[in-house]
TrEMBL record:
Protein's name in the database: Bet v I/Major latex protein domain-containing protein
GO terms of biological process kind: defense response
InterPro entries, sorted: Bet_v_I/MLP (IPR000916), MLP-like_ligand-binding (IPR051761), START-like_dom_sf (IPR023393)
Origin superkingdom: Eukaryota
Pfam family, one: Bet_v_1
All copies of domain Bet v I/Major latex protein, residue ranges: 1-129
UniProt-listed SUPFAM superfamilies: Bet v1-like (SSF55961)
Length: 129
């Protein structure tokens, strides 16, 4: 879903993701530019990302932020979503790489909480299908 159909997330978790719009390129393609509109800590935010890497064999996608609220606080912000099989289950691993603009900027714990909740909500949606 995060690689080829992230725009479906607004239907699955509208309380968190309000819209995911393709700005340039094609869904599921490296180099595509995507706008994410979401709510974090009760505030609506927007971030524009480029799809930096896709590895379908490893079930991995990486997004690199280059515009929006994350870039206001971080020099660099990249997230990788990797899905691994563990028996009959899938495990979602989020890796967030960032560089703060200065030492006064907080670690992105609220963003980590957002993606954790998002993962749980998407899992619940799939289980109920």
């Amino acid at each position: 879903m995060f690689c080829e159909k992230p725009h479906h997330l607004s239907n699955v978790v509208p309380q968190t993701i309000q819209a995911v719009d393709l700005h340039e390129g094609d869904w599921g393609t490296v180099g595509s530019i995507v706008n994410w509109n979401y709510t974090i800590e009760g505030e609506k935010k927007v971030v524009k990302v480029v799809v930096d890497d896709i590895n379908k064999e490893k079930r991995l996608v990486t997004f690199k932020a280059f515009e929006g609220h994350l870039i206001e606080e971080y020099k660099a912000f990249k997230e990788t979503i990797h899905i691994e099989n563990e028996g009959d289950n899938n495990v979602v691993i989020w890796t967030i790489e960032y560089e703060k603009k200065n030492e006064d900027i907080l670690e992105p714990f609220s963003y980590l909480q957002l993606v954790t909740n998002l993962t749980k909500d998407v899992d619940t949606h799939h289980v109920n299908q």
